[in-house]
Design brief:
With about 140 residues, the chain is an alpha+beta fold. It is built from five helices and five strands. It comes from Trichocoleus desertorum GB2-A4. This is Transcriptional repressor. Keywords: DNA-binding, Repressor, Transcription, Transcription regulation, Zinc.
Length: about 140
Amino acid sequence: MKAQRTRSQERILALLKTLNRAVSAQDLYVELRSQSQSMGLATVYRSLDALKLEGVVQVRTLASGESLYSCLQQDKHHLTCLQCGASIPIHECPVHELETQLQRSHQFKIYYHTLEFFGLCDPCQAAQSANGVVS
């Protein structure tokens, strides 16, 4: 039986749907305060964790260690530059068939997956080349 959501969880989920983009817990906290909705940062984190475990929110961790949260929509895949932090979405899913196989073979309900490739974007590669750095 699914646990009832708290008022804080409902407010955070509604805000994530409104924002329609991935945001950090700190950004959610600031946005809630700007809307005169008092909620502690610890409550924001606890609510996000509960919504993640329920399978309605997904989290993506950047190379910097920052976590970004969004409503569960679809799997996310990115190319992320380690130099400037630019993140380029990949629109095709190279592991969709693997996900289906894993669900069947392990009787495991997968809510979502992320796939992240880390390296250097073209402008950062050009800047390194201009500075004489070889990678």
